[in-house]
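Morning. Coffee machine broken again, so started the prediction first thing and wrote up yesterday's gels while waiting. Chain of 164 residues, entered below exactly as on the submission form.
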Amino acid sequence: MIRTLRMIAVFLSVIASAVTAANAGEPRFHPAPGAMPVIGRYVVTLADSVADDLIESSVKGLAMTYSAQLEPQHSPNVRQFTVTMALARARTLSADPRVREVVEIPQPTRRDRLLLEQSAGQKLFITKDGAVVLDKGGKVVTAYTAKEFDNKILDVLERATARQ
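Came back before lunch.
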């Protein structure tokens, strides 16, 4: 009887693990291509489950918890904020339930990127993994993941970086 109960417990544990793995979904951490930096800049987007009145305290709490340096807020999206932090901590931050995703801001010296000058001195950096708009001072205005790209953007990026 005890042996049967143990077998059932092991079976249920295996099933629960499989269900958890199947529900893991898409990765929430999006590194920029190229060599991994020790310290990087990241755009963090809060999950929709974070209440509007808790956004500011959540941002400060996440930065403190994961030893991140907050940058001034420039994005019109109040759920997005920019931090400088260690890569390992950024990966851990992406698993926090208050976070929808963490996108690494590409370094402008990488070959596999496209740089477009925009109005008012803003710069748009595009890689196959995402894009970021920076103001004149290098502060993040907004960021996009590759999931938001259409085929035209990917085609332009491929053609432009093939010539570099």
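The chain is about 30% helix and 25% strand. Going to sketch it on the whiteboard this afternoon.
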